[in-house]
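Moderator note: this is an archived Q&A kept for reference. The question asked for a predicted structure of one protein chain; the sequence and the answer are reproduced below.
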Amino acid sequence: MKNNTNNSFAVVTGASSGIGLELAKQFAQHGFDLLIVAENDEIEDAATSLESYSVSVEQAQIDLANPEGVEEFYEMIRQTGRPVDAIALNAGVGAGGDFVRGTALEDDLNVIDLNVRSTVHLAKLVLQDMVERGQGRVLFTSSIAATMPGTFNAVYNASKAFVQSFAQAIRNELKDSGVTVTALMPGATDTNFFHRADMDDTKVGSGEKDDPADVAKTGFEALMAGDDHVVAGSFKNRVQATMAHVLPDTTNAELHRKQAEPASSKR
């Protein structure tokens, strides 16, 4: 499908499924042409489904956990010849389990590479263009996990604490630039995240979760309103995020343990 240059243009990372795909749908429903990316070949099916909204959709299968992948993807953005009106930096992964005895170092470092390093890398490149132009919107997918120590998901929660702090800091730096920065903070959401993180046998992994479509709608509305952050999903998430700021870290760590400890480790 040819680009409709009368449409706004949005970029979404981690868009093959889950919150990322639903964010892409929100942009498409509101008339944005799209460039979407994910590491798996499901991104092709995602792109096909998004074309039903009568917008232009381009897709890329690239692993953003590699610096070369970020540079390759940014070059794709530049080659469109279009200014990025909005970008959703959503790609992320977890690695559940005991940090010392249960997770592989390679998996832990991959969490940092994708959730932290690639987010900083791509944000640096795209935001420079937005600031030069004097307009743009950025949505970071953070998490309520950012508010608490992540027992049995230690690196993931730490990565989201970084993303949350990073988003709020650059939002303040750019307050007079015409560029807005919003952090989306979902709770447990019905996506493939917990299976990929090897957390199927945890309380949070097997429990009730929020609809990713609802989470994405909340995030999109906050982005368009220029809000600094939004806690998405159930009322319980908002209570949890609030209480996490009140309770000591030792208590939050123990509460997280009850949710994320693998059943096998309790035997």
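Archived answer notes: The mean pLDDT is 95.
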